[in-house]
């Protein structure tokens, strides 16, 4: 009767062989040598159990099975380890940059304008658009600014050298609109109250071109007309706008002012964020920054468009987008909005 | 208006605290420009000429602080009646009142206190007589003028229209051409001052002057404004007159000046006062309703407070059942109707006290202007396609505009800021080219910019367009090198914009688009009508790299979009059959013609024709190109057989051969 090979010798043999295996193929060869059903060394050892003494069979069998299990675990582990080291076909360097489809960004002024539009759309306003070339009636006269009114100085006007062809009412555009208020007139001339509109767009003034002025800028004007609209309603609306635009905690104040087309007139200030209202150079040491002009629609404006000023009241406001954008993005030179430097434009999310 | 606080406290006993006074008046409608020591510079709005004075601001401060005016009614001796030695005649309605006194004076420097007050308020001291007129103007708001009486030819003053071609050398030593829109103060022979604007040099008060005529008048605001603008001359006087001075003030201001000149020992009155005041304006009465105050402000102001504010601001209010009848003081030229009075109440009640409410939304708001959504969609599509939105000026240089428009179709600005801003853009592209160049000059090689905005033409008015300019590479990545943009890219952007509205664009020759390179330019057609153009820019001085541009008019696009049905058809259930053709054709034959021939010789089962390669070079005879086309067939109701597709393909090949002398490749 053949003496069964020593289990510990076999284990030592296995450990040595496995240690020498450098590839998945090497591991497979080791597996074959020890575990092959036909001629594996462990298989052979298991077969030899049958010829052992009956009282030794159980112990011997268990020991060999333990060895077999352990060899299998070692082989799988080694195989997995070696597989992890190989480069699979089609492997990529996942750390290289992805192929991002080229994207442009909306201009910062567009982003601010759409942000304002969306706030007022949420308050039930209708957005209206109108011509940038205006006639004197819509830009001035209907807004309580007859010829030679000193308030025309507040809006130094760019005029066209020739009038444009007349419109359906025989009016001829003769100037670049100094505000989008002309749209308020156009809207009221063709609609009955209630009115709740905003009119965004470019406006033009004969202003110098420097860090704080441009001869062209963008405005959003609003108009609400109905029975019983009050200055309190204007205040609540603008406070709501400021909270959405800046921050829910922003502090605002209304300060009396003058515009020919509103009475009473006011300006909305927000607390200076540069100094939190304690006073700094940015806010001329007042703690407040002027954001927009507003007021209750002047009865003469209602008369010009055929509304009954006894029955209807309303408010109007006008906000300069560039000024809000300067504050929002922390920029101190308005010209950056017109240079179209990609390094500037690409800083914002699309 | 620079207000020294120590001058203010002569009229109202406010705390001597510039910051406090600034803050209180600031919240009543007088914005603060600056505070320098004891002097607050207030911005006075155009409706408040009365507050371009210490007394005007004192009245506001008294109202704001709840104080009484202390010397507001200071005792100034009335001027004696009787004639002045100078004859005055007023011959124009633009002068509503003309008052004059004559004084014998000794001209010299002002006392220090007077000079320093003027300096603090921002006016340069000149001599005691001129300084007093300026002092009274700053104090009361009423401008005055002093003439050297000895220089008046004929010893008289005539207020009249200027005659065409009259000239006057004004105090600033400018010789000014006058015209008959202007009112002048003249002596017997010639103008000696432009009414309400500036005096003449010839009658200027000088060290040798011994007798002066002090003028204190009221001029029609629009007349002074016209004159001031025509002369391009703005003065402390003209700014007050054109906003509206107090018709009641002229004689009182003279009395104050006479008293002050006497007080500083500079002169004595000669005779009485001449006062030509043909048609005094009666005081205005404006009704003020309690309920209207509440509804316009959205707050209930107690009656007592309303009365207090009106009284403090010098209104005379008489109670009525529904409110008050209010008499407006003559210096408040801005108060004409009820809303004006309600503003006065609101200002001094305090806008911060009015509760914030919200206007009721009583119905569904109408949909917004369609242009808004259109522009938003285009911006997002083009940004998504890798084009950056730019924001360029509406006005451009004439030279930049001319290639894009006939010169007589340009809309020109009369008073441009500079030649750079002289005409309104006839196209968005010149501005975009400037942006592109700007970036290329700063090492950005791949630039793609677009803009949505208005363009202008005399004949066609104002139109909204989208324009773009692209150059450089279509994007470098480690996995491949980018290829340069071509005509196909600018055409692709036009197609992308049009497709955003479900509209197709066609192309036609663009022979008159001289700003584009021959052979690489096209007119864009929407529904057969020109709606824009695309192509390669003909010349750009700053770069040799090709720049491709395009512009598309949004109105025709929107119109075409509105005619496009917005329904979805059920998906076909049968498979498609695909056949590829490669043909050799003349290189001048447009692909569109080939496509047209294919379409016209195939049944409706041909659902798509798409070019997938265009090649010339090796293996293709000179003057010819190889065009590869993919044909896709599908029948809505059944599976097509190979045989019937083959039959159609042969018909197509036959048509291409006979019509275009095409030869089939690779057979």
Topology at a glance:
The complex is a heterodimer of chains A (350) and B (667).
Chain A: H1 7-20, H2 24-35, H3 41-48, H4 54-85, H5 108-122, E1 126-127, E2 133-134, H6 136-139, E3 175-176, H7 181-190, E4 195-204, E5 216-226, H8 231-245, E6 252-259, E7 262-271, E8 288-297, H9 299-305, E9 313-320, H10 321-329, H11 336-339, H12 342-345
Parallel strand pairs in A: 1-4
Antiparallel strand pairs in A: 2-3, 4-5, 5-9, 6-7, 7-8, 8-9
Helix pairs in contact in A: 1-2, 1-4, 2-4, 5-10
Chain B: E1 2-4, H1 5-8, H2 18-26, E2 31-36, E3 39-43, H3 54-65, E4 87-90, E5 95-105, H4 112-120, H5 128-140, E6 145-148, E7 156-161, E8 167-169, E9 175-177, E10 183-186, E11 191-194, E12 198-199, E13 211-219, H6 221-231, H7 236-243, H8 249-263, E14 267-276, E15 285-289, H9 290-297, H10 303-312, E16 316-320, E17 323-327, H11 338-349, H12 370-384, E18 388-389, E19 395-396, H13 398-401, E20 423-424, H14 429-440, E21 447-457, E22 461-471, H15 487-500, E23 506-508, E24 516-526, E25 529-537, E26 547-553, H16 554-563, E27 577-586, H17 591-600, E28 606-615, E29 624-633, H18 642-660, E30 663-664
Helix pairs in contact in B: 4-5, 5-8, 6-7, 9-11, 10-11, 12-15, 17-18
What does this molecule look like?
The complex is a heterodimer of chains A (350) and B (667). Chain A has twelve helices and nine strands. Chain A is of the alpha+beta class. Chain A has a seven-stranded mixed beta sheet, with helices on both faces. In chain A, strand 6 and strand 7 form a beta hairpin. The longest helix of chain A is centred in the N-terminal third of the chain and has 32 residues, at 54-85. The mean pLDDT of chain A is 89. Chain B has 667 residues and is α+β, with helices and mostly antiparallel strands. Chain B has five domains: 2-73, Phenylalanyl-tRNA Synthetase, Chain B, domain 1 (2-Layer Sandwich); 87-276, Phenylalanyl-trna Synthetase, Chain B, domain 3 (Phenylalanyl-tRNA Synthetase, Chain B, domain 3); 284-353, Phenylalanyl-tRNA Synthetase, Chain B, domain 1 (2-Layer Sandwich); 370-563, Bira Bifunctional Protein, Domain 2 (BirA Bifunctional Protein, domain 2); 577-664, 2-Layer Sandwich (Alpha-Beta Plaits), CATH 3.30.70. Chain B has 18 helices and 30 strands. Chain B has a seven-stranded mixed beta sheet with strand order 18-21-22-26-25-24-23. Chain B has a five-stranded mixed beta sheet with strand order 4-7-10-11-12. In chain B, strand 21 and strand 22 (461-471) form a beta hairpin. Chain B is elongated, with a radius of gyration of 40 Å. In chain B, 42% of the residues are buried. The model of chain B has no long low-confidence stretch (mean pLDDT 93). At the A-B interface, helix 5, strand 1, strand 4, strand 5 and helix 8 of A face strand 2, helix 6, helix 9, helix 11 and helix 12 of B.
